[in-house]
Design a protein that fits this description.
SH3 type barrels; 100 residues; mainly beta
Length: 100
């Protein structure tokens, strides 16, 4: 079985044959070298022929995808919504508490 999935920067993949989970971090301008970062933080690369000759499949980002980056602040993970999405009691009027 060979790969039909094209490499896309910032997408996660699994090399099924070698049981490796990784994220594509760069693709060389000529498209011949695909740089990846494995879930354990190690860096690696595939050439175009080895990418399409391997059994690589697209996957969702792992639950703990930030593990390779060590100590990461929550702000650095790309979450920009600091709102807890809870109503402030001062914003609720008595009609909100009563049934119609």
């Amino acid at each position: 079985m060979s790969t039909i999935t094209d490499p896309i920067i910032d997408n996660w993949y699994k090399d099924i044959e070698n049981n490796l989970v990784f994220k594509v971090i760069t693709i060389e301008d000529k498209g011949d070298t695909i740089e990846v970062q494995y879930l354990d933080g190690d860096l690696g690369s595939y050439d175009k022929d080895s990418w399409y000759g391997s059994t690589i499949d697209f996957i969702e980002a792992p639950e703990d995808w930030s593990a390779p980056f060590g100590e990461v602040e929550e702000d650095d993970l790309g979450y920009s919504d600091n709102d807890s999405h809870r109503r402030e009691y001062s914003d609720i009027n008595s009609g909100d508490w009563l049934d119609d």
